[in-house]
Specification:
- By secondary structure, this protein is an alpha+beta fold.
- The protein has one domain.
- Helix content is 30%, strand content 21%.
- The chain has a three-stranded antiparallel beta sheet.
- Strand 2 and strand 3 form a beta hairpin.
- The longest helix has 11 residues.
- The N and C termini lie far apart (30 Å).
């Protein structure tokens, strides 16, 4: 098995892997889409700036008191980032194969 296949199997059976992070194997494709790493978001992005992000979802919270806003924490091999996803974007991408899928 390739290293990526080992990582997928580790996550499927244990929920983590010591061999690598799943996102680390798809950066070529993510770079072409101008998707930023968690480290780049945390170190370069300004508050309120719109960014494209990808990663494993660690936490999703939706409160009825904030007008449908969803707070999401994602991670990649560079760290974690906290995202604020407004209701219109959440509904737009809910049924697509992306990090917002429930």
């Amino acid at each position: 098995m390739s290293e990526g296949e080992h990582v997928v199997q580790d996550y499927a059976t244990v929920g983590l892997s010591l061999k690598g992070h799943p996102v680390s194997f798809v950066w070529d494709q993510l770079d072409m889409l101008r998707i930023r790493s968690c480290f780049a978001i945390n170190s370069e992005a300004s508050d309120g700036q719109l960014v494209k992000a990808a990663g494993l979802v660690l936490v999703r919270q939706r409160s009825g008191t904030v007008g449908g806003v969803c707070f999401i924490t994602i991670e990649d091999e560079t760290g974690s980032s906290n995202l604020v996803v407004f209701e219109n974007l959440l509904e737009k991408y809910r049924n697509r194969s992306c990090i917002l899928r429930y």
